[in-house]
């Protein structure tokens, strides 16, 4: 049986301190559940913060890099997947995650949320402005879930994994 | 000197008749300028309508398919690029277009607009709801252009190609 | 009806003068038949020589680049496809070609021949050492064709397109 | 610090019993060293045998699938990466492995060896006919290593990781 991979996607350089704190806490709680954290693997923003959080709680972290260059790899990634696909790798982040958490929002995150909803992957929104959630809700056939509570997010992920 | 490739991106199965008409007219005018039309290549929606429009005006059409399966190819595509990349091919549509026209909107289109804005590619919005344009404007460092006039869109593309 | 795309694959920097001459002549004859030439698009070796040959005969040339950087583009490419996929783009070269000509051999060419034979794409070998052809013949379920005559190669391609 | 990822590549459906036994033993020894096994992830041939071997020894296994379809996933893969890239994913297998073991040979394996040698990735050959090794040696600037002893292969990998 494969492990459960939970994707946390969000801005790289543009992440705010609050978004990074949330990503760190998400990583911690994902690890405590025994799930594997999956991110875009770089050493900045949400990818880095979530990976550090997961590692601090003894969890396993996968990072799917856009390059083949490990100098941009987060030091908190255990399993680096070097794609050299540029932004085309965003689709791999989404497909390889059983559940996607959008933590904060940037243009890369928008592409990932859109690709996830298109294939019916469960997505939960954290620290994403209400009008951005509403934007995606209008394009999606499913109802969308948003919360700023890590505890609520983890409970929701747990439910999705049991479906 | 390579030819000018103009990308027209928009919904496949979910395109409205008005959006398809606009795509057809766009294809015609792109062809009349001597530009090459680039789409996602499938035989539905905006991809198909724009390709038929361009071909009706004697233009050249490129279609970048997500599959290696030509049964889903628009009969109005001259140059099929068979990627077998799934939705990861959306990034190729964007990178290979010198200018991107978003004509209508669906989840795939959202991913393409986001990837285009992320790399600073010029994007113009047609038949896209104002709140969707506003959503992207908040995430983009550039000001965004929207119009429902094909003539205005073509003039704007022409300007971008001269920059 | 899409146009016929004929792929010519071979070494970039390591191409010998004889291999480049053959690629140039192939490009010319492909263009004269009204077929579209497809290459890896860079401004070196077989890709560049074949594209220049095709353009000299008034043909249309497609180049599928590994990067999104047009500074490495052959000036003889009409339709640049910018993938930013690195060497993963080799599979697109193969899938998008109706027939593949291996003209000379390098490690990139080996990957393309292998991927082509794996999906049953017709491959013809030119200026490839006999032991390399024999290597592929042992791995392939089909019999393989090799020739150093451009005229013979063109006749063989023509046959494949009629199957 | 990321973990060491060791790639074992080889035929899927066409693998012989001897090749599969070797793959199983390789997986076991890779796991005993504390390295992570990386394969193409499918439930056949070398990918499956190596993953089962690694799992039997308590190791961690990564499988980079060509599809987004987990019904073809080896049950011995812990971390499935779902690419939906078709054979373009072969380049990811190679780039994500610090060392590549070619165990047996098929057309997919040939493409992986070629892509690995092209970027200077260390490759060791097991259960590969001498003339196939010679074929690659003629195209490679490095000298190539072949062995049918798992113990020798593991010692060689260990050396590569210390360079």
TrEMBL record, chains A, B, C, D:
Chain coiled-coil ranges: none
Source superkingdom: Bacteria
InterPro entries: CHP00725, LDcluster4, LOG_family_nucleotidases
Protein name per UniProt: TIGR00725 family protein
Origin species: Almyronema epifaneia S1
């Amino acid at each position: 049986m494969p492990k459960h991979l939970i994707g946390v996607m969000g801005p790289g350089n543009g992440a705010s301190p609050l978004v990074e704190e949330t990503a760190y806490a998400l990583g911690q709680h994902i690890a405590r559940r025994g799930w594997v954290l999956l991110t875009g693997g770089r050493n900045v923003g949400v990818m880095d913060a979530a990976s550090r959080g997961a590692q601090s709680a003894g969890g396993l972290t996968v990072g799917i890099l856009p390059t083949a260059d490990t100098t941009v790899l987060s030091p908190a990634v255990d399993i680096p997947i070097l794609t050299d696909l540029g932004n085309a790798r965003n689709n791999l982040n989404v497909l390889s995650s059983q559940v996607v958490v959008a933590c904060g929002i940037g243009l890369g995150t928008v592409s990932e949320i859109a690709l996830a909803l298109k294939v019916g992957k469960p997505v939960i929104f954290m620290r994403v402005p209400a009008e951005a959630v509403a934007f995606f809700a209008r394009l999606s056939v499913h109802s969308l879930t948003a919360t700023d509570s890590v505890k609520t997010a983890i409970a929701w992920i747990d439910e999705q994994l049991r479906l």
